[in-house]
Amino acid sequence: MSRIAAIGGPGPMASSSPFPLILALLLLVFSLAIAAPENHLVTQLPGFHGAFPSKHYSGYVTVDESNGRSLFYYLVLSERDPAADPVVLWLNGGPGCSSFDGFVYENGPFNFERGSIPGGLPKLQLNPYSWSKVSNIMYLDSPAGVGMSYSLNKLDYTTGDMKTAVDAHTFLLKWFELYPELQSNPFYISGESYAGIYIPTLADEVVKGTQKALKPRINFKDYDFNSFVPFAHGMGLISTDLFEVFFFGSFMRNDRCHK
Question: Where on the tree of life does the source sit, at the highest rank (predicted)?
Answer without folding.
Answer: Eukaryota
